[in-house]
Amino acid sequence: GYQPNLIARGLKFGKTKTLGLIVADISNPFFATLARNIEQEAQKNGYTVLFGSSDEQLDKSENLIRTFLNRQVDGLIITPVANSQSQIDELKTKGVPFVLMDRGLKNIDANIVVTDNHLAVYNAVKLLIKNGYKKIGMIAYDTPLTHMQERIQGYKDALKDTGIRFRSKWLVQVPYQDYKEHIAAGISSLLDRSPNSVDALVFATNSISVQALKDIHAKGLLVPDDLGLISFDESDTFEFFYTSITYIKQNLNAISEMAVQSLVKNINSPHPKMLKIVVPSAIVIGESSAKKGK
């Protein structure tokens, strides 16, 4: 019935065969799936995973990092929160192996595994334009994190490259906290029936999509008859919407595998190289982006 003490084992051998995983919100199906995949990939490599959610809060992220390090984890996979540069710099100073996943931080040189966010949204907007939509809006989170900034830039570049002038009114950025009420206000602003009212929308995350669909339905608007839509990431709730939703599908298996493999290499290398791994995505076509007026 003997059970080894992993912390004591770690002190003796320098390894506990455990990894720490910090995601933004484990209740979000996107992060839940990533966590499950990471657990499976880590197990293949002989590691156990400890989980935690930062809830996009700086202090919670710091507490989780400290807790995992106190438990002598061999390395960390982190979905960083806004303004957490100092936390990441401290890990680098201490020589703690880590990998950033899903998003990065400006001016931070680190191992990172991400989707090609710019190209994904660029292609989504080009699809809407190809199908006849000319006044395309976007709802995104208001954050300096690289994944969101790249998605916004992909949206703007697609408009520019097709000769459509971007209007600041078309981009609504909402805070992570109390985002639901801000999305409702943003929808009202974007669909105010003025000459610049949008005829299509791109949602930067699945959480934004779910809330926005509720607000759009409450206004009595029909998709795609009144409004074309594309979401970044899918959601189980899409199945209950009367129209199938077009969405950007990230390769979660590849992201998970690359994150674990990159971290394991980092753990076992005395001089690890800093690598950025970009994973391609795909667009799953639904009825919500059908040709305008069809």
Describe the structure.
- The chain is α/β, with parallel strands linked by helices and 294 residues long.
- Helices cover 40% and strands 18% of the residues.
- The chain contains 9 helices and 12 strands.
- It has a 6-stranded parallel beta sheet with strand order 2-1-3-4-5-11, sandwiched between helices. It has a 6-stranded mixed beta sheet with strand order 7-6-8-9-10-12, sandwiched between helices.
- Helix 2 (29-44) links the parallel strand 1 and strand 2 (48-53).
- Helix 7 (179-190) packs across helix 8.
Task: State the major sheet.
Answer: 6 strands, parallel
- Per DSSP E runs of 2 or more residues, the count of β-strands stands at 12
Radius of gyration: 21 Å
Enumerate the strands of the largest sheet in spatial order, edge to edge or round the barrel. 2-1-3-4-5-11
Q: N- to C-terminal separation? A: 68 Å
List keywords for this structure.
single chain; 294 residues; 12 strands
Would you kindly provide a brief summary of this structure?
This protein is of the alpha/beta class. The protein contains 9 helices and 12 strands.
